[in-house]
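Q: What would this chain look like folded?
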Amino acid sequence: MRIVVAEDSPILRAGLVGLLEDEGHEVVAAVPDAGALRDAVVEHEPDVVVSDIRMPPTHTDEGLRAAIELRAAHPGLRILIFSQYVETQYASRLLAGNSAGVGYLLKERVMDTKDFMDALERVAAGGTALDPEVVTQLFGASQRRRTVDALTPREREVLGLMAEGRSNAAIAAALFVSERAVEKHVASIFSKLELPVSGTDHRRVLAVLRYLGIE
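A: My prediction, written as structure tokens:
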């Protein structure tokens, strides 16, 4: 993958660059602020952006707002937000419309580099990778919960794990059930949410958006 990293902390920025390059990816630019991020995407046309949220000059939400603008201007660009903070308003906007290839991880909750790389690869492949705390806060901020009222408690559990970007096998392991049982729950979720028949990955994304009250 060709990656742009946007992180204002020099130490964290260098650490991310080292990790990504050790994994065989090409970091085409590593920048400290949102303005430089926009310029780097235009110049290098990367596959994926890994960006913090709070960067100069105001250290509020520059990175997330830049990510929204970049997705609008470059629809195929994959975005992985990597931050200490959950910003529900802008996160919802980032996921709205076309959420394929979007991730949002919290720095203090990523305990293993493998977890980070797995999430990055899911995002690069067009999936989602959302930290459970991000899912919880987005769902809590939503006022459109009626679309998931028809789901059973177990189906909501499965859908919550889908929102984190987990595969059926990973969901089965987390819930201590068979993969076949998860497949049945997923099929029931698609049916109850009246999602059109299409690629399974696309329907998973749509189901997640319904769960978060975004779509």
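The chain has a mean pLDDT of 87.
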